[in-house]
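Hey all, sorry for the wall of text incoming. These are the two entities for the joint prediction.
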Amino acid sequence: MANARPVHRLSKKLYDARVPALREELVHLQVRLKEVPSKVLLILAGEEAGGRGEVINTLSGWLDPRGVETFAFRQPSDEERERPLMWRYWRCLPVNGRLGIFAGSWYTELLRAQADQGLPAATSAHHIEHIRNFEKLLVDDGTLIIKIWLHLTKGEQRLRLAELAANPDTAWRVTDEARRNHRLHDRLARSSARLRAATHRPGAQWTVIDAADPRARNLAVAGLVARKLSAHLKRLEAPRPKAPRIAAPKSLKPAGLARLLALPLDQKLSSSEYEAKREKWLGRLHRATRAAQAAQRSIVFVFEGWDAAGKGGAIRRLTSAIDAQDYRVIPVAKPTDEEKSHHYLWRFWRHVPRAGLVTVYDRSWYGRVLVERLEGFCTEPEWRRAFGEMNDFEQQLVEHGTIVVKFWMHVSADEQLKRFREREHTAYKQHKINAEDWRNRRKWHPYEIAVGDMLALTDTPSAPWHLIPANNKRHARLQILKTAAKSIEDALGL
Amino acid sequence: MANARPVHRLSKKLYDARVPALREELVHLQVRLKEVPSKVLLILAGEEAGGRGEVINTLSGWLDPRGVETFAFRQPSDEERERPLMWRYWRCLPVNGRLGIFAGSWYTELLRAQADQGLPAATSAHHIEHIRNFEKLLVDDGTLIIKIWLHLTKGEQRLRLAELAANPDTAWRVTDEARRNHRLHDRLARSSARLRAATHRPGAQWTVIDAADPRARNLAVAGLVARKLSAHLKRLEAPRPKAPRIAAPKSLKPAGLARLLALPLDQKLSSSEYEAKREKWLGRLHRATRAAQAAQRSIVFVFEGWDAAGKGGAIRRLTSAIDAQDYRVIPVAKPTDEEKSHHYLWRFWRHVPRAGLVTVYDRSWYGRVLVERLEGFCTEPEWRRAFGEMNDFEQQLVEHGTIVVKFWMHVSADEQLKRFREREHTAYKQHKINAEDWRNRRKWHPYEIAVGDMLALTDTPSAPWHLIPANNKRHARLQILKTAAKSIEDALGL
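and here's what came out:
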């Protein structure tokens, strides 16, 4: 019985005496969570037979079940496998007022991969980087993350497994995998300790809880949840200073603005030349998307640009080269209230295409560093960190095999004015112009600075920005078709 | 070349002359669709090689792609297979302002099943009943449904297949299945004609379009969409009479009210007796849910009842018997704006559990015939037809293998008053009582009538109502545990 410490078991009497107050506290905290509102993500991991299931059942019994959701994350479904690794977690994130319990998570997945395949250190480090980024993103957004590791020594684990095996109701839990994990206890403990150390970060710390005594373990978990949640709510309920007024923004990286301003806009393209070339490139784009589909690669197009830069028309030409059954256009307007209850990237994650399909985002997550930055819809720290978050999002898409093609459609201020007036004077275009467009136009220069920063800070090798001069509509459309076709061909190695 | 009629082909010149006006009209109609707002479901079906894909591509090119979504419905994903047949269609229904094109639909699925398996007539008739109900439900809810059948004679089909096979870009479309469908043309044409006749219903009529000449076919489809959409918008844009005031409701089926009023409410149950029996039934319920999971059967619990009848407490006891990873509790409050944009059943369909899992609805679709009926949140025709819609929904769940258990928790008006007062005087219960509860209480008698109608009209053999006397909390909780366990055991034949 090496490793088995003498366990000082908590008596049932003491346990029963402590539970009622703890339950009441938890339920009160849930009410406050709904009022603030905020959300909690509880990640439970631990050694084999540490009692994760029992902890979750106990905790769920103590909490108001209407505010809790538990996710087990067993085998990914085919819809999940066809998207980047983190998609399945994004789709299960709790909304405001709720507590999500993840039994099994990116940690379980990574540890299993390490144990099964002896994952190379570089791959592990890379996964860890994604995990850190994901947790930071949630914490920054106001989600309380509680990470608990239920710990058993090898000797304690042996005892627990023997107990489980002896009871006909629980014997099924002692699977071959459980036995193997027991044999490998010490090696697994070392690798999980390394993983915890690498992901023990501000706002997303690990708490290791001794799981040898089930009653003490339950109280420890529930007590930790109560303390963490209480502190979280206290922070949120405190009066917060008003967000400062929005001043004219300063450029973070003037190189981007310089690139934007240097873009020549006076291209010419005759109608006949356009038509001849258009057919050629539509054909190439069609073949490229079909080849991507055959390779089960998905494609994401991002369209950003000035109001009236011609996004709609360009999207129409682009999609005419793709089978209508294979693409979806996501027009990005105001978020729905469900979307508002999540991290700002959630509403874009939910439309990430399945294998072989295409999503066209008509405006996108970049709204965060454009309109939201300039209109004060988010705070300065929020839009500042968004650059990195968006790079990481696109990186995940690309690593999964998705081809990401981003366009900024650029017109001059004069050209925009001409198009606005035309819209106002053309009966069937009037719905395309409103007071907000004119308001945005008055902020042309601040917008230029924001666009420049976006171009400089999110132009990555795997998801570069394509600047499209768009004063000439024909030229712009043709360049988009070309760029789209070539980007896909390049990604496929054609 | 039997069957090949002499085709009078539409010249390219005439076609090109007609397209611009049609496109402009379609885009204008899309703008109005967004403003009303309403939604369109375009179902495209037809003979092999009728050009469904080309029609969709053409139409998508003419419409504003931001308002269109096309769904192909190829092989169902595992997430779809684990739910009732129609779940995959529910999840793809267009939201307000949008046009959904279903290339492939319940019709494709049924016709394929008929061709492959020689589906028994009774099964077909049963499917047809579900299709009729589903389309009626959407039409009643204000969705415009346009159903188009692209028709080719056998001779025309042979020509089209030969054309496709001759072109290296399209030869892949001439699959073995396509060849077989061509051989079976006449038989398939007869069975599809029967299917169309059986599903040609008010608001969901079929239009058969001759698909021999692609250009004429495209114009015919687009023209039909424009005409139907225009008429639909005209109806919706016309000033509508105000909904009448809500009068005290009259009972539709007094037997339900009688059943409710006859329920004895004065049961006694000692604390010790309760605890002993509770353990027994919790164990049985636990084993029953595990057996259901082993059989890949999912379970839906519906909790309805008076305010303060003890739904929350009962759900807490019930879920304590189920592994937390296997159930979700859906608290039904105000719908989100995304949910509001859909049929009222949509937000319940989206939470239908996967195989082996459990969903607990804390309040449910029955809100339609209770609070919505009494508060005038829906019109009288709406709540009147809801009874049948809800029966059909539950029928689909049951046919899929889901076990549906519905509870009405009943307290007397006096008992409710006592509990309301207690809530007001107990600090940590005050959040559970508000002005609305008192308002609802003043409508006790109208509510009784609505509950009675619900009990009478939605008490079906496969999804019966269980009336739970709930003046005594212990008795109510125990009876719920018992009923739940027995219902699952019965469904599993244990």
